[in-house]
Design goal:
- Strand 11 and strand 12 form a beta hairpin.
- The protein has ten helices and 41 strands.
- By secondary structure, the protein is α+β, with helices and mostly antiparallel strands.
- It is elongated.
- The protein folds into three domains: 275 residues, Zn peptidases (Aminopeptidase), CATH 3.40.630.10; 193 residues, no CATH class; 243 residues, no CATH class.
- The longest helix has 22 residues.
- Helix 2 runs parallel beside helix 3 and helix 7 packs across helix 9.
Length: 850
């Protein structure tokens, strides 16, 4: 039957059907009238890009796919089909991987849009979050923090059939058809609320225009809810059984993208009335956490352009009407709400509309959607930041200002999902009257900037940017003169850069007052020194106070925070951190600790990570060269190089480089080698044989202890003088100028052996390194057993049990003081055999050739 015949038949049926004699097709218009808006009637546009208007479903769907294909932070899956067979898609918004940078499981948040077909702003807002998430990639602030700690799952359009139907009829409605509510409520067409169950989707076939199920009434545990008439014609008909609709069933599968046990917050985006219909369960802790969350989000959104205020309207405890938010709140014990977005209670009147029909509240003017979309995307991101958990102090450090030496350092290191270990290293006690610099780092970005300046986060007071810190023992506070705090927004780590995210660390200078009262307090225990707790209080962007006991990571279980400790004993609030202590002395014996010296030229390892390590060369010019032999994320060899200044007991490798692209052997071309920036590192030495390294590379940040593995011939920690033989002068880096981009590191050891690291590539152009050691007390070195390695994983995934050392071949070297040669023969056919003419690249401090 043609559309025209169907339309005529429908109109004829209307004229003959007694109960429906008053049914009329009425259109929204800009002009004054029964359905006069007072502003232009929005019309969907087939475009994927955001603009000052509404996109069609095809445009939105194209935008979702474009965002996914253009970013490694968006992953999409089909989670079901509508009654009309359209794919319902969910998207996971997160950085690659499944764990946080600390190695913990990421938590999850679920945002759902387009449950009610007529509420066009809902899919736009959820899509806006996807756009905001991608646009913020690399900000090293709130976006990157959320991406690396939370998996946000979004279902941009749930009721796709109904949504497409409304967009096909952007102004037409049936009027005078609702037998339960006043007859001025328009239905079907632009005002369709339900899905298309028992409905053919044709606006002009009137016999089924009231059919469909309200997806937001089709959910346990409160299905069927308080029925109006319980008839399928009802505007809010709940369906024949709970979760009877494919759209609802799809939402239950959305969490497969992240793991249902990780869910911490759910919101279903609707319009209108500008509020949260939050769900309250019998768990009062959940209700309290939820109340604080929505107050935080209300304040934040009111602080954005437009100053739009949202209010929380909690439901009754353990009551409901069958909404999706009730299902997720009670199933997963999390804060959950139906999020009603603009317009507010005045509906279209607040935009200059006539207000002739209350349903104009579902029709946001095109001129407002960009602001609504962008502002709500920001606030939705803030909800993820907040529910990712409270901050905690991760590290602190004190530097002697005069010498720039590190004198004290402390940090929390991961000990598995259940805990953290506290590591404190006091290199020398602090003394009154000497100027120091304190740096404290947190687990998340703590401050907000506009035009480069620290300002209160939108919606927060001016006092929210204050930080308190003091030194105390047994409730008594040491008199310390602290300078102003400087929050750090440049990379690089301690002492001048942020830890992992912009403004997650601050530094301040301080001096312990040299007074009789302070000396008496220091000596109160009968000794010349004493330990004082470093006490810090600073709220994060949304006002959460630090976890007072970082030894137990904060998690979520049974509707509340677990391990979120307060110094006062209250739950879910946090408080001051006093987990680190500083040694303060009245005796100024050694204000500066052990400095870097020539004898630090050696191989260094973390004993718990056998199979990787560093070769350090202390150069004559106050610089150091470092080679890091390790593995990539797939277990293949990886090596990095860095050069940087020596500052007292520290070495700064401000840029670590990964040489890539070369090919082993005769196919090597130095023009193929590219030095790719990979991160940065800093070494701090606590003595001649120990220290630690802080690195940030390939998305990871970690501190590892270091121990000396080798001792270089001619370099002693305690003795100075000429080298014992000319062989000692051969230690350093060597290369063939025709093969710039690969080479050897030679260490003549004080036990009569020689250690050689060969940094190169495999025949396919991948990084490759080899290790060789042999007895040799002559210029000619014969090494019959050259080893290669594989199996380890980079960073936190490293397990020494995974490392496999295997035979590669043999190597011969003949070295003088400035030049030499090398030849090799591999037992692996792809590497073959060959040789190099070598020249010296570096000389070690204390072992320079004449």
């Amino acid at each position: 039957m043609s559309r025209l015949k169907r339309s005529l038949l429908a109109l004829g049926l209307l004229a003959l059907a007694t109960p429906a004699l008053s049914q009329r097709i009425v259109e929204w218009t800009e002009q004054q009238g029964e359905l006069g808006l007072g502003y232009p009637v929005p019309t969907p546009v087939d475009t994927a890009l955001p603009f000052d208007g509404f996109r069609s479903y095809a445009g939105l769907a194209s935008r979702h796919q474009d965002l996914m294909n253009g970013s490694d932070r968006i992953h999409g899956e089909i989670i079901g089909q509508t009654r009309e067979g359209r794919d319902i898609r969910a998207y996971r918004l997160a950085a690659p991987g499944r764990t946080t940078p600390e190695g913990l499981a990421r938590d999850a948040i679920l945002y759902v849009g387009g449950v009610h077909a007529r509420e066009w702003q809902s899919p736009e807002v959820v899509t806006g979050l996807m756009e905001r998430f991608v646009a913020g990639t690399g900000d090293r602030s709130i976006t990157d923090f959320v991406a690396e700690h939370v998996g946000i799952v979004v279902v941009p359009v749930t009721n796709i059939d109904g949504f497409v139907h409304t967009q096909a009829n952007p102004s037409r409605n049936w009027l005078d058809v609702d037998f339960r509510f006043p007859d001025f409520w328009p239905r079907d067409g632009r005002m369709r609320r339900k899905n298309l169950r028992d409905n053919d989707g044709d606006f002009f076939t009137a016999f089924d225009l009231l059919n469909g199920v309200d997806i937001n009434r089709n959910n346990p545990p409160f299905w069927p809810g308080p029925p109006e008439t319980g008839e399928p014609d009802d505007l809010t008909w709940r369906g024949p059984s709970p979760l009877s609709e494919p759209e609802n069933q799809a939402l239950t599968r959305a969490l497969d993208l992240v793991g249902a046990d990780r869910l911490r917050f759910y919101a279903d985006m609707h319009s209108y009335t500008q509020q949260w219909f939050s769900v309250r369960t019998g768990n009062e802790r959940t209700n309290a956490i939820q109340g604080r969350l929505f107050q935080t989000l209300s304040n934040h959104h009111a602080g954005l352009p437009g100053n739009v205020v949202y209010v929380d309207t909690p439901g009754g405890i353990d009551t409901g009407i069958g909404t999706t938010s009730e299902y997720f709140a009670h199933t997963y014990q999390i804060p959950s709400a139906t999020w009603e977005i603009e317009p507010g209670q005045q509906a279209g009147v607040q935009y200059g509309g006539f207000g002739n029909n209350s349903h104009d509240g579902f029709i946001l003017p095109e001129s407002e959607i960009r602001r609504v979309r962008e502002n709500l995307a920001e606030t939705m991101l803030v909800a993820a930041y907040h529910m990712a958990g409270p901050p905690h102090v991760v590290a602190a450090e004190v530097t002697d200002v005069a010498s720039q030496a590190v004198v004290w350092s402390a940090h929390w290191t991961d000990a598995g999902p259940e805990g953290r270990d506290r590591i404190q290293q006091s290199l020398t006690p602090l003394v009154p009257g000497r100027e120091y610099e304190l740096r404290v780092a947190f687990s998340k970005p703590m401050r907000w900037r506009e035009n480069g300046e620290i300002v209160p986060f939108p919606g927060r007071s001016s006092g929210s940017i204050n930080t308190l810190r003091w030194l105390e023992r047994d409730g008594e506070i040491l008199d310390v003169d602290f300078g102003p705090d400087e929050w750090l927004d440049e990379p690089g780590g301690a002492p001048d850069g942020f830890h992992r995210y912009r403004d997650d660390a601050f530094r301040t200078r301080f001096t312990i007052a040299d007074t009789a009262a302070n000396r008496a307090l220091i000596e109160a225990g009968g000794e010349t020194s004493g330990a004082f707790a470093l006490t810090v209080l600073a709220s994060d962007l949304t006002g959460s106070l630090p976890d007072s006991d970082p030894s137990s990571p904060v998690t979520w279980s049974d509707g509340a925070w677990v391990g979120y400790d307060s110094h006062t004993g209250s739950v879910d609030f946090g408080g001051v951190d006093r987990s680190f202590s500083l040694e303060v002395s009245v005796v100024n014996e050694a204000p500066v600790p052990y400095a870097v010296r020539a004898a630090h030229s050696a191989m260094w390892i973390d004993p718990a990570r056998a199979g990787e390590g560093w070769v350090i060369e202390i150069l004559p010019n106050g610089q150091a060269l470092g080679y890091w032999f390790t593995y990539d994320e797939e277990g293949e060899p990886r090596w990095l190089i860095g050069q940087g200044p020596i500052v007292e007991n520290q070495i700064f490798f401000e840029e670590l480089l990964a040489p890539v692209g070369g090919r082993f052997g005769p196919d090597f071309d130095p023009d193929d080698v590219e030095l790719v920036p990979a991160g940065s590192a800093r070494m701090v030495f606590t003595g001649c044989d120990s220290g630690w390294i802080d690195y940030r590379a390939f998305g990871q940040t970690q501190r590892l202890p270091l121990e000396r593995l080798t001792r270089t011939l001619g370099l002693s920690c305690n003795e100075f003088g000429p080298p014992p033989s000319d062989l000692a002068l051969q230690s350093g880096s060597w290369y063939d100028p025709e093969h710039a981009g690969e080479g050897y590191i030679v260490q003549r050891l004080n036990n009569g052996q020689v250690l050689v690291m060969w940094f190169s590539y495999d025949p396919d152009g991948n990084q490759f390194w080899m290790l060789a050691q042999a007895e040799s007390e002559a210029d000619q070195v014969d090494i019959p057993d050259v080893l290669a390695a594989r199996g380890g994983r980079f960073g936190r995934a490293f397990d020494p049990a995974d490392v496999e050392l295997y035979d590669w071949g043999e190597l011969q070297m003949d070295l003088g003081c400035e030049s030499g040669s090398a030849s090799y023969e591999s037992i692996i056919d792809a590497f073959g055999s060959g040789g190099f003419d070598l020249i010296r690249l570096t000389s070690l401090a204390g072992l320079e050739c004449d």
